[in-house]
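ok so i was messing around last nite and threw this chain in just to see what happens. nothing serious, just curious
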Amino acid sequence: MSSARFALLSLCSTLLLRAALGVNPFYHFCSTSNNFTAHGPYESNLNKLTSFLYTKTPSSGFGLGSIGQYPDQVYGLALCRGDVSPSDCKACVANAGAAIRRRCPRSKGAIMWYDECMFKYLDAEFFGQIDNANRFSFYNINNVSDPAAFNGEVRGLLTGLVEEAYSVSKLYATGEVGLEDKMKLYGLVQCTRDLSATKCKECLEGAIGKLPSCCDGKEGGRVLGGSCNVRYEIYPFVNV
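result:
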């Protein structure tokens, strides 16, 4: 993945798509310049890393590792949403590991997001660094009646969750707040666990800062990146 490439894509989401999005990836990026040779040592290392992450990730919801030696060394990680069960995490990582190879068949770097997990690999070490090059947004097409007030509630909820998330080892937090007419607002923030607490907070604050440009006055929205993600909705979307 080129560090110079930045993408912020706005995609529409409706409640009718929620079931389908659970099994289909939201989005993916492939590196555009560095490709590996079919059946060569890099592909062999990538196969081993994919298998390792499939085994490692489900127990805690996060896995990372590297396989091989330069110039064929590959680095990767997988992250499952903090509320996802080990069995669902395992299934999601398996789907992502297979799908990313189909969509980026010779790329030395790629990243893919599902609703329940993220899968990423690269031919250079990226652990502990905030990935701002790979980021996109997703929003509900429905608008709220009072955008200014609603946006304030969103920012308040997510900002509070950031303070909670970066202070715990899982780097993950969810919460809710009551709105008018007995409605509730639900939020989630999460970082990959290779980040330090300080970098997690920085990443999440940057993601929240992108919400006004993608999701202003929308009933739901999220910003997903290679190191962290934030989401809000007016319906529950995590398992409790």
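not much to say yet. The radius of gyration is 18 Å.
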